[in-house]
Amino acid sequence: MLSAHSITAREPIPSAVTHTLESAGITFSLHASHSVDAQLRAHAIVLQHLNQQYLVVIPRHHILDLAKLNARTGGHWQALINSTQSPWLSHYSLEALPAIPTLFNIPCLYASELLSNSMTYIESGVVDLLIGLSPCALRTLFATAEAIECSQVVALQHPNHSPAAADAQGIEQAVIALTKRRIHKRLEETLEIPLLSSTAKKVLRLRTDPLADIDELAAIVETDPPLAAQVISWAASPYYAAPGKIRSVEDAITRVLGFDLVINLALGLSLGKNLALPTDKPQYCTPYWQQAIYTAALIEGLVRLMPAGKKPESGLAYLAGLLHNFGFALLAHVFPPHFSLVCRSIEANSHLSHSVVEYHLLGITREQMGAWLMQCWNIPDELVYALRYQDDPMYQGQHATYANLTCLAQLLLAQNNIGRIANNTIPDALYERLGLSPDKAQLALQRVLEAEQALRNLVAQFNQS
């Protein structure tokens, strides 16, 4: 049967799904996902331990507690990510994973809370089209499955949408709870955060000097040979298509990159090397520097298309993109015993933002950590707020333009499988606040995507340094 909210343009759903449900005598309805209460939706994920697999189904407003599941089952479960699941999906012509155990012929675990819904909605295998099941139909669907308590409700309020003033206290509480470290008078002493490099200190001083010139910047960069080599390579990259050969740092600044970009590039590179990148990461995670450079390049393009009255300082906006994920490395540095569980939990809870998962497990998020450290290092406030509120498309507070640009760039890239955001829908209000149209934003995105090889070459430079 079809509901009043059924989709006609994308019907029918995959025949394997229809056949499996009808063979079991399960009555179902079809619904457009936008018409369904999110609290009634289910999230399905395939987990694997050694050679054993489980289909796990929980409410979409829950987080799968891997630690609890591991303790209950004696396994060390890890999500199978798209590349592994794709043979199943392609075999049955599925675009999304339905919570139908008999379709895949593997054992199933489910959260008993699903049976208390007046209606539960699962993926149909077609994007934006859901299957509605009554409690009776759901019991039939899970007839051979096992109910297990392995998920918890997540808070409705997004952790990063709270005021930043309380971040230091939250970080302190997380450190005490998870590391047993003694808090010194200064939290950063407890965390043993590396000191800024001499290059970063010099660049920061130069940024605040209104009389600073290219000669001074070139002199600072040239005293750091790896940085000097990268600036020259950057300017010589096909991405900038500079005429002639780049022979010096000064040449790179004056002919290609400009003072503003180089000073922020130098600062971003210096800061980015202060913490070692974690070797562990979620399986589907775009590599750190690839994500950083694509985001920065897209922000650079978006700023060019903004109306003059709304344009921020382009170099700082670029720097926000380059360092937007800095808190990820900081989480690994501060909470190493817990970081692997964080990565595995992000994989298993693809329906939730990484920040919700991090807050649930640690009591703090990468955005909060990154912004706090930038404050400790006296980095400009524009960058602090860009990092802190980068995942809030409705943010309109202090230095909102920088946060909004970082948010928009990540959403646009996520829609093209660079990075992952649980909900990558872009609200019209975000475009409006930046003075951009969706068409203009797509134009900036297309320029970045067309320069993929050139950008990958820049990524390789960062990874080698």
Index terms:
YbaK protein; Hypothetical protein af1432; disordered N terminus; alpha+beta; about 475 residues; about 10% strand; 2 domains
Task: Provide a concise account of the structure shown.
By secondary structure, this protein is an alpha+beta fold. The chain has helices spanning 15-23, 66-73, 82-91, 101-104, 135-141, 167-179, 187-191, 198-207, 214-222, 225-236, 249-257, 259-272, 288-305, 314-322, 326-334, 336-348, 354-362, 366-376, 381-388, 400-414, 428-434, 438-450, 452-464; strands spanning 29-32, 42-49, 52-59, 62-64, 78-79, 108-110, 120-123, 129-133, 146-147, 151-153. Helix content is 51%, strand content 9%.
Write structural notes for this entry.
This protein is of the alpha+beta class and 465 residues long. 51% of the residues lie in helices and 9% in strands. It contains 23 helices and ten strands. A five-stranded mixed sheet has the order 5-2-3-6-9, covered by helices on one side. A three-stranded antiparallel sheet has the order 1-8-7. The N terminus is likely disordered.
